[in-house]
Amino acid sequence: MKIIATNKKATFDFFILEKMEAGIELKGSEVKSIRAGRVNLKDSFVKIIQGEAFLFQAHISTLGTTNPYYKPDEKRPRKLLLHRKEIDKLFGKSQVSGMSIVALKLYFNAKNKAKLEIALAKGKNLHDKRESLKEKIQNREIAQALKEHWR
């Protein structure tokens, strides 16, 4: 599994409750752009519209070698490939207030297919974000102390 892009902002802004893997429908030149690592998932989210899941605000840049007459929109909505049961489950849980579906990672699996890891998430408050920053700093200090101790 080769991870292409991660959404670090999602783990900072949300409590991740449930993760799920989804295929993603791409145009021809977008696959090459993903392989080149020209992807940004920073503000991306998933919406379910008429029984189908779509990824919004994911930025996949076009390559310079792409045909100028055929350049798909870089921030276009992309259809996610999920089973009906998975879509219904996500739709039901996302209707609860404060819940949303966010994109976490974009990667190529063992069969060389582009996959997107999505998660059902609940928004954090400001004090929760401060606590997570404190925990991160404490863990870093502990790791440094252990490293120095074993030298």
Alpha-beta content class:
alpha+beta
What fraction strand?
A: 35-45%
Q: Which percent bin holds the helix content? A: 25-40%
Shape: globular
Mean pLDDT: 89
Structure notes:
The protein is α+β, with helices and mostly antiparallel strands and 151 residues long. Helix content is 32%, strand content 36%. It contains four helices and nine strands; from the N terminus they run βαβαβββββαββα. It has helices at residues 8-13, 28-35, 84-94, 126-149; strands at 2-6, 14-24, 39-40, 45-49, 52-56, 59-60, 78-81, 99-108, 114-123. The strands form two sheets. The chain has a six-stranded antiparallel β-barrel. A two-stranded antiparallel ribbon has the order 3-6. The longest helix is centred in the C-terminal third of the chain and has 24 residues, at 126-149. The radius of gyration is 18 Å and the shape is globular. It starts with a strand and ends with a helix.
